[in-house]
Specification:
Length: 351
């Protein structure tokens, strides 16, 4: 065997050993149920084990944002429209998301706090405009996206990143099209548009104390893009770098000013990174060469664990399709299929 083969064999063996060690942890899986409809999806979890997401209502005509707390699933309602969705939750149990409005195509980002659903508003008056709330930190600072619905579909003219703090909505850096995450230090992640002679390309960026840093991409050919999904309090970032022209798509981590190809490191043909906790544990999903289906995973200091291989998941008859959130306790949320129906799940480790 040549040195190249020996190197890859050693990497493969180390991943197998690490995965075995990670699976030595006992897990329990909880079906979070629905709000009366046939499906639900979980998007985020805080350190108290409270989960947020979206569930269909009876009849499956519309969906509402939910919070799962103290063993129960609760409807957060809407701002007057038929549907809403929840994107994130902080340690205080404050939830952010987006809701439709009554009788219009417009929508508004919301913050749910102390039992009340409140709109974060919109920046543009006199036109049809919308807002989305994507993330919230433990200081109740919210970031997201604003949009002008009365302009052409070109992202640069249509979208802009926004922040909501102390009851006021404001625009962020003019180069940002969207803000997708914020940590307790106020560091904000999002993306901008790159003009390279091709259709719209998003490029991951970090806004830190007014300074904008482009995170880059994993490949170096025309068509490349990157979007960040999560940032922890150490400033570590996870996301996905892709290229629609070549089919390239891999999860990345960004630490100490460098982007690393996490998906390739774990042996995936394609992958996506969804969330990162304050210990640097990452959740996402990936596909193996020659195998069908995307497998949700968690990658930590204990190694790689593909969630569908866990005994608790197998014995309960689940097929998990995504992992979207992880807290500092190591609890994981996402969605999967049980008895043919899509359900939000909560995976809890015990050591």
């Amino acid at each position: 065997m040549n040195m190249h083969g020996i190197k890859h064999a050693a990497i493969g063996m180390s991943l197998v050993m690490a995965s075995a060690a990670a699976q030595a942890v006992e897990w329990t899986i909880t079906d979070l149920g629905t709000l009366g409809g046939s499906s639900s999806q979980a998007t985020a979890i805080n350190n108290r084990g409270q989960v947020v997401g979206t569930s269909s209502l009876a009849g499956d005509i519309s969906s509402h944002a939910f919070i799962y707390t103290n063993g129960g699933l609760y409807d957060l309602g809407t701002l007057g429209g038929a549907s809403s969705s929840a994107a994130a939750i902080n340690t205080q149990g404050q939830v952010v998301g987006t809701s439709g409005l009554n009788g219009t195509v417009e929508s508004r980002g919301f913050i749910y706090s102390a039992g009340k659903l409140q709109s974060i508003g919109a920046l543009i008056s006199g036109v049809r405009s919308s807002s989305e709330a994507r993330a919230i930190n433990n200081r109740a600072q919210v970031v997201g996206i604003g949009s002008n619905l009365d302009v052409p579909q070109a992202p640069r003219e249509r979208l802009y990143a926004v922040a909501y703090d102390r009851g006021a909505l404001r625009p962020l850096n003019n180069d940002m099209l969207a803000a997708t995450g914020i940590n307790d230090r106020g560091q904000i992640i999002g993306y901008k548009q790159v003009f390279d002679g091709l259709p719209f390309r998003a490029r991951a960026i970090l806004l830190d104390n007014g300074k904008l840093t482009e995170l880059g991409t994993l490949d170096a050919v025309p068509g490349r893009a990157s979007i960040p999904a999560g940032i922890n309090n150490a400033g570590e970032i996870v996301g996905t770098s892709s290229n629609l022209l070549t089919g390239f798509s891999q999860a990345f981590t960004y630490r100490n000013g460098k982007m690393a190809n996490l998906g390739a490191q774990l042996g995936y043909a394609t992958s996506e990174g969804k969330a990162i906790n304050n210990f640097g544990d990452v959740v996402g999903a990936g596909t193996r060469p020659g195998k069908e289906g995307s497998q949700p995973f968690v990658y930590s200091k204990s190694g790689l664990t593909e969630l569908n291989t866990l005994p608790a998941v197998l014995s309960a008859g689940w097929v998990l399709s995504e992992a979207t959130g992880i807290n500092d306790v190591g609890q994981i949320v996402g969605s999967g299929y049980k008895n043919g129906q899509q359900r939000a799940y909560l995976l809890t480790p015990s050591r």
